[in-house]
Amino acid sequence: VVWTARNVILRDENAVRAFFSHPILIVCWLYLLSTLPSFVNARDFTSAFLFLTTKLLAYVVLASIIADMVRTRDRLASLCKTVLSISLIVVGIFGSYELASGNSILSFFGLDYHLISGSSEGILATTKTDVLSVDREAEWFRVASTYLDPDLFCVFVILSLGYAMGLWHLTVSGFWRAIIVIYFPLAHAMLIATGSRSGFLAIFAFWIMVLFMFRVRFRIALITFSCAGILCLIPFLHELFPAYRSGISMDAFHSDARYGFWKTGINMIRDKPLIGIGLANFTAEYFDYSSPSAIKGKAYMAHNIFLQVLSETGLIGLVFFLALIFSVLTTLWRMIRDSKDAEIVNLSKCLFVSGVSCVPLALTHNVLDLAYLWITLGVIVAVCNLDSGASADSKHNEMSGVLC
Predict the structure, then answer these.
(1) How far apart are CA 207 and CA 216, in angstroms?
(2) Residues 129 and 297: beta-carbon distance below 8 Å
(3) By the 8 A CB rule, do 305 and 364 touch?
(4) pLDDT band with cut points at 50, 70 and 90 for residue 242
(5) 116 has which bridge partners?
(6) Does the structure show a pLDDT above 70 at 373?
(7) Confidence (pTM)
(8) How far is CA 302 from the centre of its chain?
(9) Strand 141-142 relative to strand 116-117: parallel, antiparallel, unpaired?
């Protein structure tokens, strides 16, 4: 609202156009519209309305603002520096505090919250609500920093690595490159300390793409920094590794809460496949569709973003949600393949790698209401606009040269 008022006062011609300045943003708006039919089946209409307006709508506007504000490379570099500075606090200071103390950083500020503990059988336990059987003899706690869930914290860290790599290509400042050198091992140490299985898959996907998409010197540097982070965890290996020593059997998996959430989501999809049960209504409908293996307490999400979207907004919502993902990835890939600007190519690679690496986490958690993800979407649009501007300037210069 403030941003729009500012544009109206200044009579900025981009006041409205910025919301539809790129195909990605247009697909975002189409996705929001695709959630409206699900309101017909919404038992909890208030939750559906609030999630659409205070979350999804606000995030699309946020992405549009980021795309409109970041019009130059200097602003893009400043944004990456800001993100990296915040990440150092959230990951480095808060995460390290939790790892060393075993207490949530939120409890340090007086909030009644405790870290999730890991059980010795490899099945992840839950929070203090005790809706799952928590192994009270667990010797370690899963780092989550300012996030309420370790998996969401993993998404933040993975995306922040993309910004760190991008800043490396945007600046030659020795200070900021030193900060990146410090941040990379810290980030990897905290990723492991989350104890997230999908987080481990995200790290694996991240490194597979890094090894194939970047130059040798850059790869060697990243590997060196990351190995340093893993070495940082040596004092804590005794507490971390017992949780995964015995592996996970199929019987144990079937008794896991996440398996019950997935079965519940599938039951919802079978009942109302076209328009879903209603946006943000998974919790309201949980008890009517929950399977016998599901937990008996409240469930706030399906722990799989694709199941969540399909169960709540049906096939209509899923089609536009997949279209949004496809448009983002194809835009980045097109810049990697076609851009003549080396900085744009490297930035696109960094964002592509960090974005795809979040897919394993999206398969085990609802990442759609994570503001940081939508900020990154706005940055992708901004990078694309910078590339389009650079291409237009190049063509203009070529035409001027021909005329001369």
Answers:
(1) 13
(2) yes
(3) no
(4) very low
(5) 142
(6) yes
(7) 0.84
(8) 16
(9) antiparallel
